[in-house]
Amino acid sequence: MNEVLIVGSVALDSIETPSGTIDNALGGAATYGSIAASLFAPVHLVGVVGADFPTEHIEFLKNRNIDLAGLQIVEGGDTFRWKGDYISDLNQAVTHETHLGVFEHFEPKLPGNYRDAEFVFLANINPELQLSTLEQVKQPKLVLCDTMNLWINIARDAVKKIFARVDIAVLNDGEAKMLSEEDNVIKAGRSLQKMGPKHVIIKKGEHGALMFSGDEIFASISYPLEQVVDPTGAGDSFAGSLIGYLAKTGDTSIGNLRRAVVYGSVVASSTVQDFSTKSLAALTMEEVERRYQAVQKMSAF
Ligand code: AMP
């Protein structure tokens, strides 16, 4: 089976939402992405943590068929920590603190077997680190990347450089407008396509996602939920399961990409139902298939 290589943050998150708070919980873009992708395919993770990263999290990730040979553990270093809230808007995190810790001096080094990976997910991290990871992969078949407002603000040129090298770029609507400098989401999608990616996916939270491919647009609805507890990691779970499904099937045709977008949104719908990785970790493929079919039924006409 095809394997997925994922680089990105592995973090300890402190989050406040209208449903409550949680401190120093398992988080990070590569963490959510890897757990989601591992529902579909074996994962090789590239990242860094400090010696303060709880062993129980390492054991949990290993038990998910996630290869941690590429996870550097820095003696005496502090794990990346992110603190944020979603009090005024469940679709938009407000960052209170970003403690880079071991990220400050991180240089991704891919173990030998990682370099043969065909499916690569460059999850949220400094775009220069996304580039240096990609440069170590021999012959990727499909590369997907994510980014965030911080990097668009402080490293726009590097974000554009990575966009020019990927097959699929995934962003939320705010980020897409910010990077393209367009205030209409369709114009933003079209403009981002011109930066290089074959497909641009714009996520609109509870309102679904749009995929731009050539002249075509595919619209997917989100799985309807009555309550969102913690939106953290929704985007990473979306992208992780999308690439996991593509790796599992080995099919990168447009029809299969559409199915992958729907798998991405149903997995993300589970992530947001509890704090941190709790709900995603408990998600079964039976439930994924049930939600996938429900979405199919809801959007057929
Ligand atoms: P999202 O899918 O956008 O909700 O991603 C949430 C994750 O992004 C959290 O678990 C954070 O640890 C992580 N994160 C927040 N800020 C950064 C950053 N500057 N670089 C990398 N990861 C981050």
Helical fraction: 25-40%
CATH class type: Alpha Beta
- Helix count equals 11
Level-2 CATH architecture: 3-Layer(aba) Sandwich
- Sheet with the most strands? 9 strands, mixed
Order of helices and strands: EEEHEHEEEEHEHHEHHEEEHHHH
Q: What compounds are bound to the protein?
A: adenosine monophosphate
Mean pLDDT: 96
Strand content: 25-35%
Rounded to an integer in angstroms, the radius of gyration calculated over CA atoms is 17 Å
Helix and strand composition category = alpha/beta
CA(first)-CA(last) distance: 35 Å
Secondary structure layout plus pairing:
Elements: E1 4-7, E2 11-17, E3 20-27, H1 29-37, E4 43-50, H2 55-63, E5 66-74, E6 80-85, E7 94-99, E8 119-122, H3 127-135, E9 142-146, H4 149-154, H5 156-163, E10 168-172, H6 173-180, H7 185-193, E11 199-203, E12 209-213, E13 216-220, H8 234-249, H9 254-271, H10 278-282, H11 285-299
Parallel strand pairs: 1-4, 1-8, 2-6, 4-5, 8-9, 9-10, 10-11
Antiparallel strand pairs: 2-3, 6-7, 11-12, 12-13
This protein binds adenosine monophosphate (AMP).
Describe the structure using short key phrases.
single chain; 301 residues; alpha/beta; UDP-N-acetylmuramoyl-L-alanine:D-glutamate ligase; 9-stranded mixed β-sheet; 4-stranded mixed β-sheet; 11 helices; 13 strands; binds adenosine monophosphate
